[in-house]
Prior knowledge:
Layout: E1 6-11, H1 16-26, E2 31-34, E3 44-50, E4 65-68, H2 74-77, E5 87-88, H3 93-111, H4 114-122, E6 138-142, H5 146-157, E7 161-166, E8 176-179, H6 184-188, E9 193-196, H7 210-214, E10 219-223, H8 235-240, E11 244-249, E12 269-271, H9 281-296
Helix pairs in contact: 1-9, 3-5
The structure holds NADPH dihydro-nicotinamide-adenine-dinucleotide phosphate and oxalic acid.
Amino acid sequence: MKRQPVVLFACFxxxxxxxxxxxxxxxxxxxxxxxxxxxxxxxxDYIITWAPPHGFxxxxxxxxxxxxxxxxxxxxxxxxxxxxIPVARMIDESLxxxxxxxxxxxxxxxxxxxxxxxxxxxxxxxxxxxxxLARERxxxxxxxxxxxxxxxxxxxxxxxxxxxxxxxxxxxxxxDTFAGTDQLDAFLNGCMIVVCLLPLTAATxxxxxxxxxxxxxxxxLISVGRGPHLVEEDLIPALDAGHLAGATLDVFxxxxxxxxxxxxxxxxIFITPHASALTHATTAGPKIVDNILRAIAGKPLLDVVDRxxxx
Length: 311
Ligand code: NDP
Ligand code: OXD
């Protein structure tokens, strides 16, 4: 009798129970195993993964495709031993809506001068602050992919003037479009809030640096893509120089952020633990299963990453 295809759930640093609760009842046309109880390694056809150690996949000699539960695949693509098979990433409303909500929350926080009121409260001072209308504020979004476009729409819906920057022009209703390195300065000029929603690639590594900050005048940074986008040693000098007025950082070069890192204690910096958008098993689990069933049926996979482009 022909054996069923075997899928291995091998997500590191993730609570497996939430996922297995969703995946197990859907595992009808395939057998589901959970790392490290992989059984006969040669039988594994597909892997559902997050943050595996480099070299992890080399042991699975019959592996046919890899399914990431995350949107960003930089850590997979940086593995020099990644096998030459399709890698599918996650596109899901838990990420798109979750990220848009997070960025909107932070944009409103800065727009309505909440950091200033926090300072006044600490000093028991009573000073009303008059702020412009949202439509007089420009929010610039670097990266107009799945998350960037969803975020642009929600932030625009709240009344802000929104700009998007990407490699190719990505039109979104009511959003001013900028593309390519040539238009980066024009995109940044006048932004009150700059959001980084780029993937981490060779071209975007270190893009949030002193040169970029020097184009800004008292702006706020919302860094939610990947930690290495930011040249960390350039941030506090840019705050001191007034190019930046504050920063929301969700991602860091080293995660968890080391307890002695200067960012923790700087009142101009707001930190969240890489949690601006978390994949929900309830919505994303069925998507992964559908994609695995496509692979089993010999159909082209959805959301396959372009390995040459790096995202
Ligand atoms: P997409 O692949 O859908 O979009 C990427 C966007 O970035 C595209 O618009 C692309 O341009 C643009 N881009 C890529 N390289 C460049 C470049 N060199 N210059 C200008 N623009 C560039 O990604 P997603 O929107 O799904 O996700 C974006 C990133 O968000 C992920 O890679 C991940 O790192 C991060 N993320 C963070 C989370 C968190 O919790 N903090 C959660 C989920 C994701 P073009 O359209 O022209 O191709
Ligand atoms: C992702 C993430 O890439 O959570 O999905 O960072």
